[in-house]
Amino acid sequence: MWSWVVTVALYGVGIGFFHLVGGFGSAAKALQRWGESSGRRSGPALLDRMRR
């Protein structure tokens, strides 16, 4: 029984922390910015390798 209590408590702490740092919208924007910047750096080189 205590394992369920600990599990629920840790989920609550995780969800609370995620809400504190900005939530889903903020995480989605951060991943989008990372993907765009990563794609700009490696995109041209990747296309050159594919054409060979």
Largest sheet: none
The N- and C-terminal alpha carbons lie at a distance of 61 Å
Q: What does the overall shape look like?
A: elongated
SSE pattern, N- to C-terminal: HH
Task: Provide the gyration radius in Å.
Answer: 20 Å
How confident overall, as mean pLDDT?
80
In what range is the share of β-strand residues? under 5%
Q: Give the helix level as a range of percent.
A: over 70%
pLDDT < 50 stretches: none
List the quaternary state of the chains: single chain
Count the beta strands.
Answer: 0
Going by helix content, strand content and strand pairing, the class is mainly alpha
Topology of this protein?
Blueprint: H1 2-20, H2 23-51
Tag the structure with descriptive keywords.
52 residues; mainly alpha
Overview of the molecule:
With 52 residues, the chain is mainly α. The chain has a domain at 25-52. Helices cover 92% and strands 0% of the residues. The chain contains 2 helices and no strands. The radius of gyration is 20 Å and the shape is elongated. The model has no long low-confidence stretch (mean pLDDT 80).
Short note summarizing the structure:
With 52 residues, the protein is mainly alpha-helical. It contains two helices and no strands.
